[in-house]
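This protein record is not my work; I was only asked to verify it. The record follows directly below this note.
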Amino acid sequence: MEEQRKKDMQYSKHVTVLVPAGLLSPDKVETINAVARKYNLTWYVTTAQNIRLLGASEENLEEIKEALTRLGLTLKGPGKFPKPKVCVGVPYCNLGLVDTFALADKIWSRFGGRTGVKPKFKIAISGCPATCAGSMLVDIGIIATRSGFDVYAGGKGGPVPKVGKRIARGLTEQEVVDLVGEIADYHASKTEKKQRMAKLVDEPDFPGRTRTP
């Protein structure tokens, strides 16, 4: 049993491929699968809508990362801006009010290249108040309504879950993107190493705004 445990530990390394908005083209699926087959890796679709390749070893971990990077894929790593998790929204959901993929792309295009981002915060976008993306249980939650976007902050899961606090109401799409940047900058200025937004959201200078629809 001990020998099997050591063998399992040897192949316990993994690589996570970032999948913006959870969207994968057939070409990217084939690209990732080619690497997975070559190194005998198993796919795991994470709750953050990324692809985690399981079964790498200490010996081939860097080789796998290099192979995926050469193919144009972005890997999860320390200091990277969090990729928004989204529901499908318009036009794929009859309850959807907005194109969630487009908003996620705007956020990722503007902030995805940031480095040195301090952990840990998560972003989710829901295309309607049903919040299928769990936007009230993440650090920055964006929810589309018929009067614009509501933004929540400070939500989290874990053993002591917390519903986020609404910090903005009735925003336009551009105001949402700007506010995400302000919150990220605020988190960076108030965090030495690692901190969830729940510990900051009640500070009097925490970013937020409300528009009158």
About this structure: The mean pLDDT is 93. The longest helix spans residues 173-190.
